[in-house]
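DUF2550 domain-containing protein
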Amino acid sequence: MSFVILAAALLLVLMTLGAMALRRHQLRRALGTFDASISTVSGRWTMGVCRYAEADLEFLRLFSVSPVPARRFLRSSLELRGWREPGEAEISRVQPGSVVVSLLYGDEELLLAMDYGSYTGLSSWIEAGPVVGVGTWR
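Tokens:
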């Protein structure tokens, strides 16, 4: 009896890991996605994938099977503050070769860690978007 329970638990774990791997593979193949880690004021980094939507930047957690983004940022409310190399405390928490991008979203300061090529795409996407208002652009 305990063997059946152990086998069922192992099968459930393997199926969850397989679903997470399949989701990650599908996200990476889609256009408009890039690997990133996000940190808010608390300083805790979360790995994930960012996806450009029509009017939003969506952040999906890496270790999840949910198709729903964990965070959404309205494009017209994002303000790019600049980028920097990761600090000593951040090097072990972000992907190798990443730059840390500082963004302002309303009153909230966000840090996104991504490779430099993804940063240039993000900055172009933000700057090319419309500003809230009729007929005005950034």
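Helices lie at 2-29, 116-128.
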